[in-house]
Write a structure and sequence with these properties.
The chain is an alpha+beta fold. It has one domain. Helices cover 37% and strands 15% of the residues. It has three helices and four strands, in the order ααββαββ. The strands form two sheets. Strands 1-2 form a two-stranded antiparallel ribbon. A two-stranded antiparallel ribbon has the order 3-4. A hairpin with a 2-residue loop joins β3 and β4. α2 runs antiparallel to α3.
């Protein structure tokens, strides 16, 4: 009975896609500061998070690690990863933040 209860409690701790997306957005906001576009790189966090996000290259590994951890916490009720991702535009540093620029 105890093992079954632990399983139920563990299942209740899983996060929704919306919850992990909010947490990931906060991680990206803390990781995308820049002075020049040369400091920026794309990270591909994986499903159900975005296809790609622009972050400071010094923060790339920690953003990828956080994305993996958040994806493991999802409750599995989100969308599947069958949709293809668009090709990202050029990287820009705009108002001190790494971001995707407009495609030519």
């Amino acid at each position: 009975m105890f093992i079954g209860l632990v399983g139920l409690v563990g299942a209740g701790c899983a996060k929704s896609e919306e919850e992990i997306q909010e947490e990931f957005d906060a991680v990206v906001a803390e990781s995308n500061a820049c002075n020049d576009a040369s400091e920026c790189v794309y990270v591909e966090p994986g499903c159900p998070l975005q296809c790609f996000v622009a972050v400071n290259s010094a923060k790339k590994a920690s953003v990828e690690e956080e994305a993996r951890a958040l994806i493991e916490e999802t409750d599995g009720s989100g969308r599947t990863c069958l949709d293809g991702c668009p090709v990202p535009g050029p990287l820009e540093c705009t108002e001190g933040r790494c971001q995707e620029g407009a495609s030519p």
